[in-house]
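User: Show me a protein chain along with its predicted structure.
Assistant: Here is one chain, sequence first, then structure tokens.
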Amino acid sequence: MNTMTTIQRMAGIVLLAVITTVTRGAEPLYQNNFEQTEVGSVPDDFLVIDGQFLVREHESNRVLELPGSPLESFGFLMGPAQKEGLAVSGRILGTSRGRKFPTFAVSVNGVGGFRLRVAPAKKAVEIVRGDAPLVAVPFEWKSGEWTLLKLQLRKIEDGLWKVEGKAWREGQPEPDGWTISWDEKREPPPGRPGAGGSPFSGAPIWYDDLVVTAAEESR
């Protein structure tokens, strides 16, 4: 076995381990690691709301790239549309430049739905509805390292929904419980999961291993 074959096989094992971690305990309803998408395009089943998202090669792996300019907020939708009962997860990598930081998120319930957003300038991860932050907890983000995010929305009872999220750095174990949550009394709209970001640092943001599953009961 030559050196290149060995490296490729090791990379495949690592990628499988990452996907298993992100989707543990649930059968995927949708997943995309961009390996089957042509470089310079986006998956056919994506709905790009805004932004010049394109698949790129990165370290022998394909990722979805959001360019470092313009400095606005962008996003895309994927997977099935539901009002409740879905979870979305993925890996996202952003880079700071000086005192400028990106923000990035995964989301449920379409364009105006809930987002789990990493806000490095605030040293926090937030749950946001539309453009309105609802709750935040401290989070130590590392520039240039992959961050894993997971967000879900489930109905608790009539007139009450719970939004739950967690974020952790690649190489660390997934937190056993949800690290941030929000009780929502307004009925959420149906919509597709998605992801997005704001490259305020001027550096690209990369996305990989996006997965949609059924929401799980809290542990």
